[in-house]
Amino acid sequence: MMISDASHKLLFKQTVDGIYSLSDEDFDAFFELFKPFSAKRKEILTYSGTVEKNLFYIIDGLHRMYYSDENGREATILFSYSGNFGGVLDSMMSQRASIFFYEAISPSVFLRASFQQIELLIQTRPAIEILLRKGLISAFSGVLERLVELQCFSSEEKFRQLLKRSPHILQIVPHKYLANYIGIDASNFSKLINSVQI
């Protein structure tokens, strides 16, 4: 699904404004760094062991970040979808190798900007750095909340919290990935859905 450039820009601006409002000049300079890109279903955008080079902005599609151990066991860390920034942010900001994979679960249309270009822009437009910092603080807060869920919540409580954060997630994320995110076997996920009044 392709959307017009004007629609891309509007969606992008709504997301940016939700984090930190930029002047028109700063916003235009930031937006100009982002170029259209597409990915196929199941395409890996960032591999574990590589440094994240890009900041992604999702126009259409569903992505997930996950960890995979030496035995092939996976742990889904987060989902990103239309109207979200994405990528392996800790690797991008530190320029260290990622321990995560970043994958397009569905065919995707997005915008991406190289972190190298963003860093250059920050030197002349400090408001962009404030935007990134506020975005990272929000992401970090989400990670801390998720840690509490993992350590203290039952599977049902985790599922309820996920639905509270993202009520539409059942319609867009395959259930096997939701089960993995919650930390239960996929075969038990339908039982969990039936036991929770949505």
Q: Explain this structure to me?
A:
The chain has 198 residues and is of the alpha+beta class. It has a domain at 5-126: Jelly Rolls (Sandwich), CATH 2.60.120.10. Helices cover 48% and strands 22% of the residues. The chain has nine helices and eight strands. The protein has helices spanning 5-19, 24-31, 89-94, 115-124, 126-152, 155-165, 169-172, 175-182, 189-195; strands at 35-39, 43-46, 54-60, 62-68, 74-81, 85-86, 101-104, 108-114. Strands 1-8-3-6 form a four-stranded antiparallel β-sheet. A four-stranded antiparallel β-sheet has the order 2-7-4-5. Helix 4 (115-124) packs across helix 5. The longest helix has 27 residues, at 126-152. The mean pLDDT is 91.
